[in-house]
Amino acid sequence: MVPELGPERLLAFAAAALTIAEGGTMANDRIQPVNEALLDERLALLEKARAWSARLVSKLESHVRGAPDEALFRINPFTFARERNTSEAEVIDLFLHATAQGLFGMDWLLICPGCSTVVESFRSLKSVHNHYYCSFCQAHHEAALDEYIAVAFTVSPEIRDIAFHHPEQLSARGAPRLKAHIFISHPHWDHINAFPFFAPLYIPGNEIAVLGAAHGDISMRQLISAQMDSIYFPVTMREFGAHVYFRNLEEGAIEVEGVRVRTKLLNHPGKCLGYRVDYNGRSMCYVTDNELFPSGHSGYNPHYRDELRAFVAGADVLISDACYSDAEYPRKQGWGHSSVGELVDFTDIAGVKSLHLFHHDPDQTDEDIDAKLRFAAERLRERKSKTAIVAPREGDVVPL
Q1: How far apart, in whole angstroms, are the C-alpha atoms of residue 279 and residue 258?
Q2: Does the predicted model carry a pTM greater than 0.85?
Q3: Pairing assessment for the beta strands 179-184 and 118-122 based on DSSP bridges
Q4: pLDDT at residue 17, rounded to an integer
Q5: Are 355 and 347 in contact (CB under 8 A)?
Q6: Interatomic CA distance for residues 82 and 339, integer angstroms
Q7: Rounded to whole angstroms, how far apart are CA atoms 313 and 325?
Q8: CATH code matching the domain that covers 176-390, chosen among 3.30.1540.10, 3.60.15.10, 2.40.160.210, 3.40.50.920
Q9: The pLDDT value given to residue 179
């Protein structure tokens, strides 16, 4: 079977991503009730269809009753068999008999060989055609039916109504409509390459603003659009379903939905902005990528230090560039990133309440990051600082 990464899966992923961002619960996580009488009747017929392995029909019943909506949409029988340590041939037979009894609908999926997107789905194999156009790849293809056709099963709406039976309502049912602002520090690839994979961009009804610094005559819109040019990436901005708009920022302050956001030009190649968000008496600063030159270096600028110190002063959380250990930094001066020691001293003087070490060198291991954390903690103790120190991990949530 060819992996299925179609737009419906994209929407399901987007719903999950949105609820993580919002701190809520997916509507699809609230399992929809099944038609008990009809399910029992058709399971009984399925049991009589042939002799099944022990508990196989019970496993199918459990899946229909308890799986989230996305797990009941376009079920791959090979995956179902593998996850339950069951014969693939028997599971395929099970799903075919279940379809005959009205538990599932069966679709033939035409898969794009270029991007693995489901281009079209068909109820009958007779309807499948060889020539097709993939809007994601923006290309015409000839389909080899023995290689790029997959079979998938979706629970019948008579048995259990799931969100994917109503694609026109999927965004509203899967997650709330999203209105969001994305602040970009600078357009170096390690900061914008994931942008095209942000699923809410593709959901109609969402409204997303992208804000960041223009670079000369190149606007923020052009910067994002260029990396999504079809030469480099198969999905262009024309495929966005959401209303996405762009705003060029300079050093200064703006208000977003009643929240004050200040910007500061940072010491990094190109044009890079740091952000300070103040709301309801709490504050968070995102200051990376940024190089704090040590005193005595030709790049040291006391005026810049004073301005940056005032920018982050008293912040509840400072997320900042701690790319290099003090031993590594002399070999990488001028690269636009700071040493841990210089950052710790600066943060303590600024009266920041909590420093979060960020933007680690890609060559560093978890042990290297732990060593930087121990060094920073010891340095803060030596300074008798009240600043807390953290090396964040993926998935951490920091309440303010």
Answers
A1: 8
A2: no
A3: unpaired
A4: 34
A5: yes
A6: 48
A7: 24
A8: 3.60.15.10
A9: 84
